[in-house]
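OP here, attaching both records as promised.
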Amino acid sequence: KKGTTTNELADRVAGKAGDGIVDYPFMWNDAKVGFVNLGVDGKWNCSNKTPYECCVHIRESAPGPDANGKYLECHIFVPFGGVGNDRRNDRIFINVSPDGRVHEAPQIQ
């Protein structure tokens, strides 16, 4: 599953840095050809695309299943405070890197 962050109106892809770039840092284990990078070095430029358009773009880079028979899917994430995702003060988010370490301060969202 690939997470895609939108703007607060949920009508355009923002990406992590607000530049519309969506990344997938893992190798895709394609059932036919083995391990491959998806997109351009694991990234897609989805600036000025709707979440749906971006998801179609991402899925086109992995049209077949992986070695376990699973297909790449998208998860649309609207930032806290955006449409349908109200900001709350009763939860804390901690971003953990792939190596299990925390590199930035926790956020109350």
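Record two, same layout:
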Amino acid sequence: GGNRRHHRSPARANRLSMELTVMTMYNLGLALHLTGLRTGRSTLIAKACQLYFRAYSILMNRDLPRSDPLINLVLSCTVNLASAFGHLLDRSSTRHWRSVFLHVYTWAIS
């Protein structure tokens, strides 16, 4: 018996740190996005795009399997990027992110 401490593997701690980072970025982006829509301030929507994109980039730098629950966050980032760029009247970026969403979604369900 005695003092047995739980040792977390570095990989597990790294995963948790990454999850907290991307979820925080996504949620801050969502708050800015919604506030921008409510107030009409496009600068807030542009900042939301930056946060969504940073979260998306971190997730895509991981080799996530199709079954990973974080795939839902990847999809959320892409659909929100398409929506935000739509509100910013950036048609080519809107089309791009819709296409990325469909690509990821198709891959995830195949």
